[in-house]
Amino acid sequence: LSNLLVLLCFVYSTEIRKQVAGVFLVNLSFCNLLLTVLNMPFTLLGILRNQQPLGGCVCKAVGFLETFLTSNTMLSMAALSIDKWIAVVFPLSYTSKMRYKDAVILMGYSWLHSLTFPLVSLFYSWVDYSSVYASCTLHLKEETERRRFTVFTIVFHSTSFMLSLVILCFTYLKVLKVARFHCKRIDIITMQTLVLLVDIHP
Question: pTM of the predicted model, to two decimals?
């Protein structure tokens, strides 16, 4: 519901559409909404039936979208954290460092990056129903492909999820550092003001 509200706000608010962060938010909400609508019902069917709920082609399509959307979601969160980091750490030069064009380029990379891995998995037939996850996802059927699939999985998780985690930790730790610095300055100014008021008071 919250993702749908974000999309509606983006559509009807010109002010939000003008903001650079709006590009990241709408992409993140769109991916989350699609992931919920497309993946969760099929997973529920898989749990209830305890078997593959749909045909092979539909299962591959769902698995493809799940891989693409989860990766895109993580990269969108990383891009949004970079935007917030620049806004907080470099407030005076934010408009020059993070332009609308830069946001579109970041999202373009996110889509290209996220499409690469499901396309490779389709090429090697690594998208299938997994009884462990009760859903159509990345799944190895032939043991002869074990080494190649392992390398693929490591690269996929490292460049999608681990990379996003590192970026999120770095950017928000920097934001926290700036916030703590400003809190200390506010405390000092408050104390100086109180001392001044005490001195002035007859």
Answer: 0.83
